[in-house]
UniProtKB/TrEMBL annotation, chain A:
Low complexity composition-biased segments: 1-20
Membrane topology: Multi-pass membrane protein
Descriptive protein name: ABC transporter permease
Compartment annotation: Cell membrane
Segments crossing the lipid bilayer: 36-57, 102-123, 135-155, 167-189, 210-235, 268-289
Stretch list, region Disordered: 1-32
Protein encoded by which gene: msmG
CDD domains: TM_PBP2
UniProtKB/TrEMBL annotation, chain B:
UniProt-recorded name of the protein: Sugar ABC transporter permease
PANTHER family: BLL4140 PROTEIN (PTHR43227)
Keyword Cell membrane: yes
Transmembrane stretches, start-end: 19-43, 75-101, 113-134, 160-183, 204-225, 266-286
Gene: msmF
Length: 303, 298
């Protein structure tokens, strides 16, 4: 329900930042007992089933015939029904919804990276000025305002301005992202020595050039974090598309599931095929960029 | 704004004009789409605006009515009950699993990768999957095992439906919390734990007097963020119960959404949203103070 699911750990200044990002295998000193604890490994593997079983269930149910659904439903499908996916593809308007989700997510991520970092740079380099410091707190304080307060006025505003579509949604993600992203970027930019900029400036570069040529490339780790968080937020978000989008052709994947659920609530095998297709893109991305995503999310949380 | 700095303070270089141009467009848009709606929301909360047509200024009437409304009270009770149980459950599980992941085990990276999966999935869709599990699979399994209480769909039972929401919310939130605690555990130097082992401290003793105090800041982050997020629970409920049966699982967010958008209570529910905002801020600040004092004394 919040505009951004994570909030800054305000006041927990004691949170160690640096070493937290190290990959899990840490001890560099020679180990005396390299013995693997197999019992614990087995126990954790059993715990991981709580995550895997619902996913397994989704896959097998998506491939069953409706007649096979009786019982607990954990058995494999006798004769995989690939046609369920074609049916879900058609009924949920998958291509359109997936395209909308992709468009909105990519647009939100790119624009967020380009604009939010720039705003944060201007603020971070002028934090000794009362005006910019005030701006910092003004943006960041918005994190505490829950979406329901602004929900109704924003709906009216966007529909009045003709922003009740994909472009409007991109725009809102970029603007609302400012609160948390400025918090992330400013903390990071402060740690970049000014000497780098001074050097470029003496070579005659202006603020604009300095930012794009010197600072922006240095922001890569934070850009990754902001990009990943924005990606997960925009891709998975339900409430904002639900209230902002007016035309059915603008539907995102979660919204298409919601509409489908209300229309064809008893067609379970097709429903599960459509859930799987809606989850698949993000699962695939996760499979290949797992390390990146985890460390990106982590950097955003324990900064 | 750009000029007229007081003469005494002219020691610094003036702020370059480019810096202003980097900030102003974003500021204007943010004010327009965030600050103005906040103020509008506050104004409407002082009127009897139903969401359409005309309205009159009625002062604090909406706020007074909130406290007399059983629906509101029930929604707050449910939301807090849910959020407190889910926060505790999430943090207990999310503390236990990283302890294991940090020990000498195999497949650590793979396991960590699996535990994090729920964090990248859309809650709404996860909710739909669990909805089916609760209503169709769990009763069959429970019956086979002879567990009477679970042999019917828990989501249609007014006394048990909230547990279904706790389970899904915990399933999802644990992923994020595990990663934070794991990061915390890796900040603890190995020799500290080793020294304790040599001194003969048992496992529980080690956890209570060394590990936990050292990751206390991470505990604070997780407790505050979990409770704050759970208090705003919305997607889970839409997918699992839609607030029902009856109004048994109507959270404050769900009530604001349904009442404000569909029930013609725009002004009234906006007043509710503002009270709710104050409650969340108060709870977060209180929690932060409390936990930070613990950090100090631990």
């Amino acid at each position: 329900m919040s505009i951004r699911s994570a909030a800054p750990a305000t006041g927990t200044g004691t949170a160690p930042a640096g070493p937290a990002e190290a990959p899990p295998r840490s001890p560099s000193r020679p180990r005396r007992r390299p013995r693997v604890n197999w019992w614990l490994t087995a126990l954790l593997a059993a715990c991981s089933l709580t995550v895997l079983v619902p996913l397994y269930f989704t896959v097998v149910t998506a491939l069953k015939k409706p007649a096979e659904l009786a019982g607990a439903g954990f058995d494999l499908p006798q004769d995989p029904q690939w046609g369920n996916f074609a049916e879900a593809w058609r009924l949920t308007g998958y291509p359109q919804a997936a395209l909308n989700s992709a468009l909105i997510t990519v647009g939100a991520v790119l624009l967020t990276l380009l604009t939010n970092s720039m705003v944060a740079y201007a603020i971070a380099r002028n934090m000794d000025r009362r005006l910019f410091k005030g701006l910092y707190f003004f943006f960041v304080s918005a994190l505490f305002i829950p979406f329901p307060i602004i929900m109704l006025p924003v709906i009216k505003q966007t529909s009045m301005l003709g922003l009740d579509n994909q472009a409007g949604l991109i725009f809102l993600y970029v603007v609302y992202g400012l609160a948390f992203n400025i918090f992330l970027y400013v903390g990071y930019i402060k740690s970049i020595p000014r000497a780098l900029e001074e050097a470029a400036r003496t070579d005659g570069a202006g603020t604009w050039t300095v930012f794009w040529k010197v600072i922006f490339p240095l922001l890569t780790p934070m850009n990754a974090t902001v990009g990943i968080l924005t990606f997960l937020w925009a891709w998975n978000d339900f409430l904002l598309p639900l209230v902002i989008l007016s035309s059915p052709s603008a539907r995102t994947l979660p919204l298409a599931q919601y509409v489908f659920q209300n229309q064809f609530s008893s067609d379970y095998t097709t429903a599960f095929a459509s859930y799987l297709m809606a989850l698949a893109p993000v699962l695939l991305v996760y499979l290949f960029a797992q390390r990146w995503i985890i460390s990106g999310v982590l950097r955003g949380a324990v900064k | 704004m750009t000029t007229a700095a007081p003469p005494g303070r002219r020691t610094r270089k003036p702020v370059g004009r480019t810096f202003y141009w980097m900030v102003i467009p974003a500021l204007v848009l943010f004010v327009l789409f965030h600050t103005v709606p906040v103020l509008q929301g506050f104004y409407y909360s002082l009127t009897d605006y139903p969401g359409y047509g005309s309205h009159e200024f009625i002062g604090l009437q909406n706020y007074a009515n909130l406290f007399k409304d059983d629906r509101i009270l029930d929604a707050y009770l449910f939301t807090f009950q849910f959020a407190i149980v889910a926060t505790i459950l999430t943090n207990v599980i999310a503390l236990a699993i990283p302890m294991g992941l940090n020990a000498k085990i195999r497949f650590r990276t793979t396991l960590r990768g699996i535990f994090f999966i729920p964090n990248v999935l859309a809650i709404l869709i996860v909710g739909y999957i669990f909805n089916y599990l609760f209503s169709n699979s769990l009763p069959v399994v429970a019956e086979a095992l002879g567990i009477e209480a679970l042999s019917t769909n828990i989501l249609v039972n007014p006394d048990l439906a909230w547990l279904g929401i706790v389970i899904v919310a915990t399933w999802q939130a644990v992923a994020f919390n595990i990663i934070i605690y794991l990061a915390g555990l890796q900040t603890i130097p190995g020799d500290v734990v080793e020294a304790a082992t040599i001194d003969g401290a048992g496992r529980w003793r080690q956890f209570a007097s060394i590990t936990f105090p050292l990751i206390a800041p991470f505990f604070t982050i997780n407790m505050v963020l979990s409770l704050k997020n759970f208090l705003q629970v919305f997607d889970h409920i839409i997918a699992l119960t839609n607030g029902g049966p009856g109004t048994a699982t109507t959270s404050v967010s769900v009530l604001i959404y349904t009442g404000g958008l569909e029930g013609g209570e725009y002004a009234y529910q906006t007043a509710n949203a503002i009270v709710y905002f104050l409650v969340i801020v108060a709870v977060s600040v209180f929690q932060m103070r409390l936990l930070q004092r613990r950090e100090m004394s631990a």
